[in-house]
Design a protein that fits this description.
There is one protein chain. By secondary structure, this protein is an alpha+beta fold. The chain has one domain (2-116): Alpha-D-Glucose-1,6-Bisphosphate, Chain A, domain 4. It has three helices and six strands. Strands 1-2-6-5-4-3 form a six-stranded antiparallel β-sheet, covered by helices on one side. β1 (2-6) and β2 (10-17) form a beta hairpin.
Length: 149
């Protein structure tokens, strides 16, 4: 497994795994469908099943990121995966945070590929999304009260 981090705030990983491209594509789509609060496609048409490219945003606390995934047939029933995680537009995160985001995604992808349950991740992502909505509502209420004073 090749892992590198550059000075332009991105984390990059390239590896070959023992699953076919079709199975990996299904796993990626499962993650996007099952965890929409955490992993969501960036704009319309950012996933390209013909070229096996995917782009989606990753919400992780106060560190939003963009993930690009490229799949390529390596051999029979093997897939070469290249993943690049960069800061979301206008966001600033350290390379170590981006590397951690990349590792979290790879661990989740491995779980789905192995057929393990991701119910805990779904629950955590949903709870996190709800907490952010509540935080924003409370913030708006407080700011409204301050401006009224």
């Amino acid at each position: 497994m090749n892992s590198s981090v550059s000075t332009i705030q991105k984390a990059e990983r390239e590896t070959t795994i023992n699953f076919s491209v079709e199975i990996v594509k299904e796993a990626i789509n499962t993650i996007l469908e099952e965890l929409p609060f955490k992993y969501s496609p960036v704009g319309k048409g950012k996933s390209n099943d013909v070229f096996n490219n995917y782009q989606f945003s990753i919400s992780r606390n106060m560190n939003p990121a963009i993930c690009n995934v490229y799949l390529e047939d390596a051999e029979t029933d093997k897939t070469k995966i290249k993943i690049i995680v960069t800061n979301a537009y206008g966001a600033v995160s350290s390379n170590s945070i981006l590397e951690s985001i990349l590792n979290d995604y790879l661990n989740l992808l491995a779980k789905v590929l192995k057929g393990d349950s991701i119910e805990a991740e779904k629950k955590k992502a949903t709870t996190s999304g709800i907490l952010w909505v509540l935080f924003i509502i409370i913030f708006i209420i407080i700011m409204g009260v301050i401006f009224l004073i």
